[in-house]
Design a protein that fits this description.
697 residues, eight-stranded mixed sheet, four-stranded antiparallel sheet, 12 helices, 37 strands, 19% helix, 34% strand
C-alpha cells in the first residue's frame, strides 16, 4: 500500500490522551469543555503522523493514585456515537455538566442540538436522514397474571428532531389502536424526501357490540404485525400480518421498502418455511430447536441469507425469489461481524479472523480498499468500525485496550484523516489503564483455550491477588479491550482473570458446543485450570483469589464456592442463576411452553436428572466462603428470586452472606446509580475477605 494511501492518526495517541487528561482535570466536566480541550491539544501537537505500533504497547509506570470507583461504575461519559448518511453530522449520548443528553454535532464539532435523556435506558441510535435521530429505549413493565411471564422489557422508538421545523414523536405513540412499543426494527427506507421505518408492533382488537366497552381497543395477542411508519407525521400502515398461533414470523425488507421474504416457524414442531414477495413458499424444512433465522439481503439484494443451527454447527444459505435449492453461503468462513448498508439493508462485507489477523472482506473493490485502509491504520489497536456511511467514505471507529479507556474517531476516507471525536471515559487516562493481555493455557482434558488478563497499572505482575471474572452468556467471549469492571479491580491492586472457557464464542463451533451439558462441570474447571496456569507462571497467588461474575458469570461465582471448594476466599454473584431447574422452567414458561424452546434448553443444559447436582441453591450448605448476592429487581432475564432464594438457603445453612437489592435495575446494569452501587458493594466484599495489600506484620 502506497504511503499516500495511509490514514493519518493523531501523532502519539498516548501523549495526546495524557495531555487531554491533564487539561480535563482543571475544568468543569462538560462536553463543551471537552470539545475545546480536544481542539487545543490537537493544535499543540501540530503535525500528524501514522501511529507507530510501539506507541500502542503498554509501558510499565509508577502506580498512579487510584481514581474514585464512581469513574469506573458510572455509564461512559460518551457512548453510542452514530454518523448521519452524509457523514457531515454525528450524534452521541454524553454527560454535559452532570446532565445526560443526546448531543448532535455538525462540521467542525459545531453543536446542533442538545436534548436531555436523563436515566432512559438507551438501546440503539440511528440517524434518519440529516435532520432526525431515531432513539430506541426500553423500560421494564409488569404484566397481568394471564401472561407467560410477570415482567417484560418493552422497547420504545422515538424521533428526536435535530433541525428546526421537524416534529418529535413516538412510533405507535398516541394511538389507542396500537401498543406504544416496538417488537423489532426492520430498517429505514427513503421514498423521495420522506423516510419510513419498518417495525414490528402489536395492534389491538376493537371490541364490538353495544356494551360499555363497545368500540374500545383491547389486547388480542402478542404476535407482532409488520408496520410501515412515516417518520415525519407518524402515520402507520400495516404491510404484513402476524404469525398464526404457536408460530413465530420474521421478515426482510428490501431496498425499495417491500417485504421481500417472510420466515415462519412452528414453535411446537420446528417446521419452517420461507416465502417470497408473492407469498409463494420457496424453501422449507424442520428444525427441532426452531434454530433458523433470516439474516438479511445478500450483496446485490437479489437473495435472502438465512441461518440454520444444526447438530454439527451453524450453516448459512442464500435463496432468491424464484426458489430452488438453497446455496451454501460463506462456507468454512469463520467470520466475526457483518456490515450492512444502512440505506437498503444489503450486505456490504464482513470481517474474518483468518491467520489470526482480522481481515475485512467486501464485495465491492472500492469498499474493500476503504475498509482495508481503516484496518491497517488502526491495526495497533483493538478497534472496530461502529458506524459508517453507505459508501464507506466516512466511518466512526472505536478503539479500546492498553492505554485506552475508549476513544471514538471520525475517519474521512476522502482525505485519509482520522480525528478524535470523543473519549468514553474522560477521567480514566492512559496511566490508569491496567495492562491487558491474552493468556493461553490448556485445560485438564487437553482442550486449548485462553482468557484475558488485566493487571494493576504500574505494578509488576508477580504473585498478585486475583479476581476471577467469568463472562456471562455463557455463549460470549472476552477480548483484550478496556473492561470497566476488570479495570476497577485492577486499580485496587488485583490481577483480573477473564477465562474464555469451553462454550465461549471466540473459537470454533465445536468449542462452543463443548460447553453443552457442562454447567458446573468442565465449564467450571476450565476457569480453575486457567487460574492455576497463571499461578504456575508466577503471575498470581492462588491462595488469594475471589470469584466474581454476572448472569452466567454469577452462576459460576456461586458454583466456585459450592460445587468447587477450597479455591476462593469469597464470591460475588450479580444477577446470577442459582438453580438450573428454576431457570429452565422460567425460560420454558416465558416462551409459551414451546417445544422448540424445550429441546434447545435441554441440549444446552444436559440431562435434567443431573441439574440438582450443579445448582448452587441446592448445595448452599457446602458454601466454603462468604457470598455476596447482588440483583436488580427489574431483571427479566434471570429473576430476582434466584438471589433471594439463594440468600434464604445460605441463611438456613448459617453461611456468611449479604444480599444487595438494586431498585429499578435490570439485567444489564443500565443505570449509573445502581451500577456504581453494585461495584462499590462488590469491591467492599472482595477487599474485606481478600485484601490486595497485606500488612507486613
Amino acid at each position: 500500500m502506497d504511503q499516500t494511501d495511509n490514514i493519518v492518526l493523531p501523532a502519539f495517541l498516548r501523549q495526546f490522551r495524557l495531555e487531554l487528561h491533564r487539561e480535563y482535570k482543571g475544568v468543569a466536566a462538560s462536553l463543551m469543555s471537552m470539545l475545546s480541550i480536544i481542539s487545543r491539544v490537537l493544535a499543540m501537537l501540530g503535525a500528524l503522523f501514522l501511529l507507530p505500533a510501539a506507541v500502542a504497547t503498554a509501558q510499565m509506570q509508577e502506580p498512579p493514585a487510584p481514581l474514585p470507583l464512581s469513574e469506573y461504575g458510572k455509564l461512559p461519559d460518551v457512548e453510542r456515537v452514530v454518523m448521519s448518511p452524509s457523514g457531515d453530522r454525528v450524534a452521541m449520548i454524553t454527560t454535559l455538566e452532570g446532565r445526560r443528553v443526546l448531543l448532535a454535532l455538525g462540521p467542525d464539532n459545531k453543536p446542533l442540538r442538545i436534548v436531555g435523556v436523563g436515566d432512559l435506558k438507551i438501546r440503539w441510535m440511528r440517524w434518519v436522514g440529516e435532520e432526525r435521530v431515531l432513539l430506541t429505549t426500553s423500560n421494564t413493565i409488569d404484566l397481568p397474571n394471564n401472561f407467560t411471564t410477570d415482567q417484560y422489557e418493552a422497547s420504545t422508538a422515538q424521533i428526536i428532531p435535530i433541525s428546526d421545523g421537524v416534529d418529535a414523536g413516538t412510533v405507535f405513540g398516541g394511538k389507542s389502536r396500537y401498543f406504544a412499543g416496538v417488537l423489532g426494527n426492520y430498517g429505514i427506507r427513503r421514498e423521495g424526501d420522506t423516510y419510513f421505518g419498518f417495525f414490528g408492533g402489536i395492534e389491538y382488537r376493537r371490541n364490538s357490540g353495544r356494551g360499555v366497552n363497545a368500540g374500545v381497543y383491547a389486547f388480542d395477542h402478542g404476535r407482532p404485525h409488520l408496520f410501515k411508519v412515516n417518520l415525519s407525521n407518524f402515520d402507520v400502515e400495516r404491510v404484513a400480518d402476524a404469525a398464526d398461533e404457536n408460530h413465530s414470523r420474521d421478515w426482510v425488507v428490501d431496498g425499495d421498502g417491500s417485504v421481500a421474504f417472510t420466515l415462519d416457524v412452528n414453535e411446537d414442531s420446528g417446521d419452517w418455511s420461507i416465502r417470497n414477495a408473492q407469498s409463494r413458499t420457496i424453501a422449507e424444512g424442520t428444525q427441532a430447536r426452531g434454530a433458523i433465522s433470516l439474516v438479511g439481503m445478500n450483496f446485490d439484494g437479489t437473495k435472502v441469507i438465512f441461518a440454520e443451527r444444526s447438530d454439527i454447527g451453524s450453516n448459512w444459505y442464500v435463496i432468491g425469489q424464484e426458489g430452488g435449492e438453497p446455496e451454501v453461503f460463506l462456507d468454512d468462513v469463520d467470520f466475526e461481524r457483518l456490515f450492512f448498508d444502512p440505506a437498503n439493508g444489503q450486505l456490504m462485507g464482513y470481517t474474518t479472523g483468518e491467520d489470526e489477523t482480522e481481515r475485512h472482506i467486501f464485495a465491492d473493490p472500492e469498499l474493500q480498499d476503504k475498509a482495508e485502509r481503516v484496518r491497517v491504520a488502526f491495526s495497533s489497536f483493538e478497534s472496530w468500525m461502529s458506524d459508517w456511511t453507505s459508501d464507506l467514505s466516512d466511518v466512526v471507529v472505536r478503539t479500546s485496550g492498553n492505554g485506552d479507556s475508549g476513544t471514538y474517531f471520525a475517519v474521512d476516507l476522502s482525505t485519509n484523516r482520522a480525528n478524535a471525536l470523543a473519549y468514553q471515559r474522560m477521567a480514566i487516562g492512559p496511566q490508569h489503564v491496567g495492562p491487558i493481555s491474552t493468556f493461553e493455557y490448556t485445560a485438564r482434558d487437553g482442550l486449548e483455550m485462553d482468557g484475558i488478563l488485566t493487571t494493576p497499572p504500574g505494578v509488576e505482575p508477580v504473585n498478585l491477588p486475583v479476581v476471577v471474572l467469568p463472562h456471562g452468556g455463557p455463549h460470549r467471549a472476552d477480548r483484550p479491550v478496556f473492561n470497566w469492571w476488570a479495570q476497577a479491580f485492577a486499580s485496587r491492586g488485583y490481577a483480573v482473570w477473564q477465562p474464555n472457557f469451553r462454550g465461549s464464542t471466540n473459537r470454533s463451533v465445536a468449542f462452543r458446543r463443548a460447553g453443552y451439558g457442562e454447567w458446573g462441570r468442565a465449564m467450571q474447571t476450565d476457569k480453575t485450570d486457567g487460574l492455576m496456569a497463571l499461578a504456575e507462571a508466577g503471575i498470581v497467588d492462588p491462595s488469594r483469589a475471589c470469584i466474581v461474575g454476572a448472569s452466567y458469570g454469577g452462576y459460576a461465582a456461586l458454583a466456585g464456592v459450592t460445587i468447587e471448594q477450597g479455591i476462593y476466599r469469597c464470591a460475588v454473584s450479580v444477577n446470577g442463576v442459582s438453580d438450573i431447574r428454576d431457570m429452565y422452567s422460567e425460560d420454558y414458561r416465558a416462551s409459551g411452553r414451546e417445544r422448540t424452546t424445550r429441546v434447545a434448553l435441554r441440549e444446552q443444559l444436559g440431562d435434567p436428572d443431573l441439574w440438582n447436582d450443579v445448582s448452587p441453591r441446592r448445595l448452599a450448605e457446602r458454601a466454603d466462603a462468604p457470598v455476596m448476592l447482588i440483583h436488580g429487581v427489574d431483571d427479566t432475564v434471570v429473576l430476582y428470586s434466584h438471589s433471594s432464594r439463594m440468600a434464604d438457603k445460605l441463611d438456613d445453612a448459617d453461611k456468611p452472606y449479604e444480599l444487595v437489592t438494586l431498585e429499578g435495575e435490570d439485567h444489564w446494569l443500565s443505570l449509573s446509580t445502581t451500577r456504581h452501587q453494585m461495584l462499590s458493594n462488590a469491591m467492599r466484599w472482595v477487599e474485606t475477605y481478600n485484601p490486595a495489600y497485606l500488612d507486613d506484620d
